[in-house]
Amino acid sequence: MHKDELLQLHSLLCQMKRYFEDSGLPVRGEFREYDGLNVSPQHIHKSKTDHKRAVFLLGKGLAEVIMQGNPDHQARLRERFLRLATTTSDDDGDEGQEMMAHKRDQGLPAFALAALSH
Questions:
Q1: What's the pTM value of the predicted model, to 2 decimals?
Q2: How many Cβ atoms sit within 10 Å of the Cβ of residue 58?
Q3: Which of 17, 47, 57, 81 pairs as cysteine with 34 (C-beta 3.0–4.6 A)?
Q4: DSSP secondary structure letter of residue 109
């Protein structure tokens, strides 16, 4: 991956982090390691390695936030992701939605299928 692509990914993950923080989900230090790096997507002078580490730590923090033990938060987040994943045009109908859901589920890891089935 080129550095400019890595910077773009870093920026997108930062937007996700900000979304989770602003949405009211309890964030309790999941991003402490990332924040400690002092590397943001705007720091284009930092090395590719620094941005790579930041992306991995952001991903780790996002995964921890998503998998928090509070069932209410998991259910709300699950519903949001399901809504986004199954958005189809109005003319697809129920059969089209079922086909989209089946295609969407192919190749997903077991933990993701379990989350979608609840």
A1: 0.58
A2: 24
A3: 57
A4: -
The vertex-66 CA angle with 55 and 38, nearest 5°, equals 30
Cβ(20)–Cβ(62) under 8 Å?
A: yes
The pLDDT, as a whole number, for residue 90 is 41
| pLDDT attached to residue 60 | 85
Rounded CA gap, 73 and 17, in Å?
16
**Hey, what domains does the chain have and what are their CATH numbers?**
3-66 (1.20.1270.110), 71-117 (no CATH)
Which residues of the chain, if any, have pLDDT below 70? 69-71, 73-75, 77-78, 81-82, 84-118
